[in-house]
Structure formats: structure tokens, C-alpha cells
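INTERNAL AUDIT FORM
Audit reference: QA-55
Scope: verify that the stored structure record matches its stored sequence.
Auditor: D.O.
Record contents follow.
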Amino acid sequence: MRRTSHASRRLSNLAKVISLSSALAVVSGSAALAVARVPVAAASARAAPHAHVSLSVRSGPPRTVVGVKGTGFGASERVQISFDSVKLKLARSGSNGAFGPVSVTVPASALPGTHKFLARGLRTGRKASSAFIVRTNWPQFRFGPGHDGNNTTEIVLGRVNVSLLAQKWSFPTGGAVDSSPSVVNGVVYVGSNDHYVYALKASTGHMIWRFKTPTEVEGSPAVANGIVYIGAGFDGPSFFALKASTGKKLWSVSTPAPVVSSPTVVKGVVYFADGGGHVYALKARTGRKLWRSTIGAGVDSSPAVAAGRLFIGGFNNKVYALSTATGRHLWSFGTGFALFSSPAVAGGTVYVGGNDHIVYALNAVTGHKRWTFTTGNFVGSSPAVAGTLVYVGSADGTVYALHAGTGTPAWTFSTEAEVISSPAVANGVVYIGSLANGFDNLFGLDSSNGNRLWAVQVGSTTGVFSSPAVSDGVVYVGGEDGSVYAFAPGVG
């Protein structure tokens, strides 16, 4: 009986073992199948790569031309390229699923801020995007190398809303701010008579960095390719290149006379002048001297550059044109007195004001006089040119709009105080300061008729020598009270 029971238990245990082995075999087979499927899934992932797009430039103003490239799309499929929700262009990928670069243009209506370029495959539905920041920078004195003072990319501020401007912030320095601000990628760069160059956050006015200079900083910084250029001092380092993000000095050069002139940067070359009548061309990246030319008199005027020529005024009553390649004198034109005004170049004509009370229009190629217009006092203001009109201030307290072709007045506006500030034009509005004490000294005027659209008193007892800059819907200017100001619509 015991043997029978013992045998039964053995048979029962054997059956359990067989059952368990079968179960394990089933599980093992399932696992093997699962393992076998992994390469199939990986192969599927490789067969459907993620789409990707890249941009030739990642920021710029409206109407910037951008090269868009893409990978990871279907073979030979049409790809829709859009800016936000605006369809721009259809591209076609190659057999490898890549396309581009395809040139597209940022819409003229694009407002400052972060936007997206999107690419979508019309057959596969694969999508990719890349961010693009719209900015309407004001990178140097008088906006561009031709010094026309006209920000054609500004679309936020205009006639319809300029009356809503209110102070957004102010930043106090230790001296009068004669320097005119430059605004690049959300940072305001400006000099002060307290011997510092400042970098301020454009949105708040908070200081990012400051750089100590040997003397007062009356000129305006120029900003290009991550470098800030500014002159101040003499008989030692007097012209500086600073890292835009930190203010660290990258290089400097010495000049025999003070540098008041504002630099101009064009195609990798920086041009400026010193008070001894020397004009310089340096490699912008390294500071290596390309040439130095002498015009025989002191210089406060800042060089304008256009079509291979540099234009500048001197204390010896002359306007000069130099070759940008060699510094060779091309022509000179005599005026009745010294020139503090900086030339503006537009449409083949050089416009400049003289201390003999006269505004001059000269042929840019020959230096021959096209026309003159006489104001009631010296013209230290530098002209702005927009469309068919030339805008300029005079120490007689008047802002003039002159027809570019003839010099006849289109309109005038009285500020009731000396105007040394140079006008900035943006989206149908002329912005300019005056040296008025105790009443309005910064104005926004209708560019077509001179009507006063907006005005404010900058500083309690001092005026505005600095020239305004307009960028991303904000007006920036320095005050003789030692502060930098920002005005924006709808604040306060």
C-alpha cells in the first residue's frame, strides 16, 4: 500500500514537472518571438526618421531673406514652408528626403519677437520647425552706414499710436549722455560723459555691463557681429572693440588726438576719425590698420559710407570724399565754416549741415553742388533722408523738411530751443530732441506735414543733445541730465 502511494506521488510529481516544462517552453518560445521582433521595430524606426529644418540666419528684421534646409522628409515629396501660419513656398525633397537651401522672405508684417519657420511634407505629413527672432535693430549712429537715419523695418510705432508713448524706464549714469544709443538684439549700447560705455537690457534698462574709458564718451557705439566699437581718449588707447555680451576688451588702438567721431562698420571694416583730422580704416575683427588718411583739420563729424566712398566733414570748412579701399582723396567741397554735422548719403547725393547755417546737397560722385538751403543758425544736426524728403534740425530752433531734389521746404516745425539732436525717421514719424530747459524737448512729428503727434520733457531742467534711436517699437534717447530713457506705447 505504501509502495502504491509512493508510486502515485512520483507519478503526480512527474506530471507536474512535465506540465511546468511545457509552460516554460511556451514562455521561452514567446520570449524568443519577442526578441526576434526587436530588430523589426528598430528597422521601422530607421525607416521613418525625424524631420529637421535649419536656417541660414536665426534673427533679423521683417523682409529678411532666409535660407531654409530640411532633412528626414519623404523621398521626392513636396514640402510646404511657412512662417507661423503664413505659407511662403513649396520645396521638393530629393531621393534622400532632403531639400534646400530654399530662399524665403520674412513677411513685412512680422512683429518683433519669436516666430517659427515650419516645414511639412505633403505626402508623409512629417513636420519640423525652427525659431526665428524678428528684431528691428538700430546698430550704429544714424542707423546704417549711409547715415540716412531711417529705420525702414519699424512697423510697431507709427502715426496711429505714437501719441501713446510713455516712459518705460530710465537709467542714470554719472554724466550727461550726448552719445546716441545703438540697439541690437535686445540690448542698448550707449556712452556717457562719466567715462563709461554701458550695455543695458532693452526691456528693463537694467545694466548688463559697463566699460571704463579714458575720457568722456560723446560718440555713439557701432555694433556688428557681436562686437561693440567706440572711441574715447587720446595719447594712449582711444578706440576700442568690446565683446558685446560681456564688455570685455578685445582690442584697442591709439590715436594722437581725441576721438569724438562715431564709428561706421561696413563689410568687416570699421571707419572712424580723430580730432586731429585723421580718418582710419581698420579690420573690424582684429583692429589691424588698413589705411590712415589725413584731411588736415579736426573732425567731430562721423563718416558715412556708400558705394565705395567715405564722406566726412572737417573743421577746415570742407566736405571730403575718400576711397574706402585706400583712403585716397576723391574730392572736397568748400563750405563757409566748420562742419560738426555728419553727412547722410542717399540716391547718389550727400546731404550735410554747416556751421555757416547752410544745408548742402552734393553729387556723391563728383562733389558738385546740387542745391543749398539757408537756416537761421548753425546746423550741427545730421540730416535724415526718407523717401523724397530730407529732415534736419538747426540751432535756430527749427526742424526742416526739405525736398531732396530741390532743397525747397516742404514744412517746418518750431521746437522753441536749439536743435543739435539729429532726426530719426521710422514708419511715418520723425523723432528729434532739442535743448529746451523746463518744457517739452523730445518730439514725434508727422513726416509728411510736420504736425506734432507726441512730445515729452526729458529731464527736469536739461535738454536733449543725443539723437533718438527707434527699435522694436521703442524710442531710446540720452538726456543732458545724465540718464538714458526708453519710451514705449501703452506703458504706465
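Auditor finding: record pair retrieved intact. The CA atoms of residues 242 and 249 lie 4 Å apart.
Action required: none
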